[in-house]
Design goal:
A four-stranded antiparallel β-sheet has the order 2-3-1-4. It has three helices and four strands. By secondary structure, the chain is α+β, with helices and mostly antiparallel strands.
Length: 87
Amino acid sequence: MPSNCGEVRQAAQEVRCAVMRMVTYQAMLSNPNNLARVQAARRGVEAAGGKVTIAPPTKEGMTLVTLLLPEGVFPAQFFPELPFYPA
């Protein structure tokens, strides 16, 4: 049994996430400014119940960004100009 309210909230969020349907989106980014925008918005994505994964850049300078978002939450809500597509 959790010992404080923070642990209760965290446990409730974990249960909610476990039953939520999640959707994966991906984008290949080469512009450092776009990558910085993704990094800056990471907390907002996580607050919405999502997850951001940034892969190491390729030799050509492309970086794969993967978003895992709850159904009904879309990448355009955080990154309207960036080309995220369902994976």
